[in-house]
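Now read the record:
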Amino acid sequence: MLVSDGPIRVLIVEDHTLVREGLVAMLEAEDGIDVAGECDDGEVALSKVAELEPDVILLDLRLPSLDGLEVLKRVKADRTDVRVLVLTVHDEQAYVGEAVMAGADGYLLKTVSHAELADAIRRVCKGEAVLHPAVARTALTGLRNLASGADGGNLSVRELEILTLLAQGLSNREIGVRLEIGVETVKTHISSILHKLDAVDRTQAVAVALRKGLID
């Protein structure tokens, strides 16, 4: 995307009010960057993109109504000229892999400094790809697993989240509380995990996932 002579227009999509307000204040103080809009909801984000036509979307992954990955996929399907910079706390292989495959132009963790974030926004707007150093290592691990065929049967991000919690010994009810989903939904995901990993029970599924490097 060619950047105009004007400031880079950024849409901030973040559901935590304090974080979002901090990002707005920080970016508004940066030369050459303008906060075109902000919102805390995935569905609203899509309408904001159409309304505001931002250059860069600063996108969290955990959002109400429509998660960030789905927002990313829909934006990239409709607007290839808009750059999407993921800003999240999640450095797990599943999140990084899905975001990159969905077309993310950058992936940063919320541990970055203000200067690093502003620099990343400018870089993705120029067409560069930006990865947090810790995320780059995760992405390389994912590529190695893919090359060796250890893709885990195309497990989704949610399934890998549940696998990780199973490995920690959590019950279905505890997993549901942690992920804010119903117990029946947890059971459905576990059934899918067992099928994809060709495992007879949750213990074997965890063992297979550990062996393949899908979870730590």
